[in-house]
Amino acid sequence: MKSLIAAAAGLGLLAASPVTAQPATAPAAATPPRIIMLRFFVADIARGEAFYAKVFGMRTVQKLGEGVRIMVFPGSQSPGIILIQSPVEKTMNGSFIIQVDDLNDTLTRVAANGGKLKNTKFEQKMGSEIGRSSHFYDPDGNEIEVLQMSPAKK
After folding, report:
1. How many other C-beta atoms can be found within 10 angstroms of the C-beta atom of residue 94?
2. Own/partner pairs for 29-35, CB < 8 Å, 24+ apart?
3. Which residues form the VOC domain (predicted)?
4. Which position among 19, 60, 79, 111 has the lowest Cβ density within 10 Å, counted as fewest Cβ atoms?
């Protein structure tokens, strides 16, 4: 784990200062918590890396040995994902929600690249927009929800 944290810090994804205990209520001037990266366990690192590159356009920014990849979304340094090849990946699945421009196109790419569609459908007005989403599993069983926001029709 120490090498993952050091690698993330080297990429500018983590602050260089050490973690210290915080009081029960952080002062108002404190930097708010934020997600640095998401961790997913996969059975086949090459397959996982190819899946996220083809579906979301992610790129690998660092390889840590044979079984770990740090990937980022297009045009971004952070947050990204860490893929870790593990023999117990089926018991260590993750999940996240990602906003996309075209829900149907994304689901087509998911199915074409080994993902399993759950065919869930969600649609709700959210302020002046309509949110539509669906869930799928990547080839290693990690659940992802893709969300498309569109202007609400008047």
Report:
1. 17
2. 34/79, 35/79
3. 34-149
4. 19
Q: Considering only CA atoms, which of 43, 22, 41 is closest in space to residue 31? A: 22
Question: What distance in Å separates the CA atoms of residue 144 and residue 138, rounded to the nearest whole number?
Answer: 7
Low-confidence ranges of the chain (pLDDT < 70): 1-31, 33-34, 89-92, 154
C-alpha distances (whole Å) from 31 to each of 12, 25, 26, 78 are 16, 13, 9, 16
Torsion of Cα atoms, 96 then 101 then 106 then 107, to 10°:
80
The structure tokens 């983590």 sit at: 14
SS3 119: coil
Residue-level length of the chain: 154
Domains in the chain, CATH or no CATH each: 34-86+93-151 (3.10.180.10)
- For residue 139, which amino acid is it? P
Q: Tell how strand 143-151 and strand 129-137 pair up.
A: antiparallel
DSSP-assigned beta bridge partners for residue 99: 147
